[in-house]
Amino acid sequence: MKVLSKNDKKMKTIKNIYVLLLFAVAATLTGCSDFLEVDVKGKATIPTFLSDPQGLHAAMVGTYNKMYLYVDNEFTKYGDVAGNMVSFPSAASSGDMVAQYNFTSDESQITGAVGYIWRKIYVAQSNANNVIEYAPAVISKYPTAAKDINNYLGQALLIRAMCHFDQCRAYAQPYNYTADASHLGVPILLRTPGANDSPSRATVSEVYKQVLADLDQASTLLTDGVAADFRYASLQAVNCMYSRVYLYMEDWTNALKYAKMAIGSQQLAQGDAYLKMFDDLSTQGEAIFRLSGDKMTGYLKSFYENTCEPADTLLSLFDKDDIRLKLLRNSVGSKRCMKYSATKVPNEEPKRDDPFIFRLSEEYLNAAEAAWNLGNYNEARTYIRAIVERAVGSEKANAVMNNYSDATLINLIRMERVKELCFEGHNFFDITRWKQNLVRESKTTSTARFIAYPSDYFVLPIPQDELYANTSMQPNPTVNSGSNNTNVINE
Fold first, then answer.
1. Does the reported pTM lie above 0.70?
2. What angle do CA 285, 269, 259 make, to 5 degrees?
3. Per-residue pLDDT averaged across 404-423, rounded?
4. Nearest alpha-carbon partner for 65 in 159, 154, 132
5. What digits encode the pLDDT tens for the residues 46-62?
6. Alpha carbon 7 to chain centroid distance?
7. pLDDT value for 35
8. How many other CB atoms are there within 10 angstroms of residue 332's CB atom?
9. Does 209 score more than 90 pLDDT?
């Protein structure tokens, strides 16, 4: 058997990525006859595929599909299993996400979370890059289609921003880990690297600057301040992304500004309408941007129905009449996340999930947290009260709010965020940006019961294949060394 050199592995990696991209575009062009008729004969290169409006349209469909592959699987799972509000019923020695639950991620785990999150985000990002790269030439060639093409460009810019941001969250420490965010982030890739390219990791500050630059451009191209179709990226979704990014940066003024822009005059979904948006995938509810799982295989439903369940520490946070408890217990009352167990699914696709990217509740929570940090306590109370009142009703909301002074209100805001956004991929990333210790329930089946902040284990290792293929790629300390974690965990 031939042993590949590092250069051979690099060339093989780049070739495989190119094939994946070309396959994605080709599959999209040939598999979407319901809205697009394209002759793909002879279109053997990406530039040829993306030389007209139809090609760009198909490429955007492919980009959404590739984004779905990382959101509706390991990345969203990681944001919760690495946190402290979920539990695995049994202490399995192996299986989906168990390594991340136990903080024993292995850099050689190419076909698990470590490798898949890195690679799937990269492929989605590369698809978006292609739309961004070729859109200007198509506009010049087809000026009458400029409006549609600029819309595709705006959507691709938002997705690229999300890819950089999400990859940075998984493989780099949070923005506030160092005073100037000068610690290592992830590579900034504005095009697919060529055979002679060896991109290194930018600082987290540089990654966030690029994320904001993409959002700045997207905001000039997208015009729907209220999403015209929640299945697609919109200006409202751009404002949500701004708010999320600025929240992580602790730029409270801008986090509040963009949360309020995203909210506009919209109200939270109430009562049955709130539950319906999880149970009926054709219902918008408070969705601002929600990926469609049409003709895709979703993995969150089976994971949360069969593998991972709400921890008692999470359930103990809820009032017995909290409407959200209906999403954390099944029909017989057993602990179970039901956010991905819709009973009304378009086309009756049994394995379909439609994960939320942005919904209105997050914007209310962002606004409350940002307002509190600005000392705008009355405004913070207004936003968090809306969340509490929707959950338990006016009378109980009054009692809850009265329990918190202005100084302690942040504790309620954070607790409501945990309850509202559980199982949507936020918990662990909130713990690290709040600079909190990771504390699991006493009966957790995880071998990691307590990890003090800061910790090298609060990031995933850079995949070994990436380190082999790219000698400029820097590893993460400790988690890329293969050392045993028992010396820094459970102290």
1. yes
2. 90
3. 98
4. 159
5. 888 899 999 999 999 99
6. 32
7. 27
8. 6
9. yes
Cis amide prior to 454 (ω within 30 degrees): yes
CB 424 within 8 A of CB 76: yes
DSSP H or E segment with residue 442: none
Sign of CA dihedral 186, 191, 117, 327: positive
- pLDDT tens-place string over residues 298-330: 999 999 998 999 999 999 999 999 999 999 999
Q: Give the pair of three-digit tokens for residue 394.
A: 């006016």
Give the integer Cα–Cα distance in Å for 392 and 449. 31
Cβ–Cβ under 8 Å, residues 367 and 256 = yes
Q: Any idea how long the chain is?
A: 491
Q: Which own/partner contact pairs does 387-390 have at CB distance under 8 Å and 24+ positions apart?
A: 387/268, 387/361, 387/416, 387/420, 388/412, 388/416, 390/268, 390/269, 390/270, 390/274, 390/323
Report the C-alpha gap between 185 and 189 in whole angstroms: 12
Cα separation of 461 and 453, whole Å? 17
d(CA 221, CA 216): 9
Q: What is the rounded CA–CA span in Å between residue 338 and residue 345?
A: 14
How far is residue 441's CA from residue 359's CA, in Å, rounded to a whole number? 29
Q: Tell me: pLDDT of 27 over 90.
A: no
Report how far apart the first and last C-alpha atoms of the chain are (Å, whole number): 46
Rg (CA), the chain: 22
DSSP assignments along 332-393, one per residue:
TS-B---TT--SB-GGG-TT----EEEEHHHHHHHHHHHHHHTT-HHHHHHHHHHHHHHHH-
Does residue 461 contact residue 186 with C-beta atoms inside 8 Å?
A: no
Comparing CA positions, the residue from 204, 236, 259, 213 lying closest to residue 374 is 259
Phi-psi region of 320 (alpha: psi -120 to 50; beta: other; left: phi over 0): alpha
87 forms beta bridges with 309
pLDDT at site 91: 52
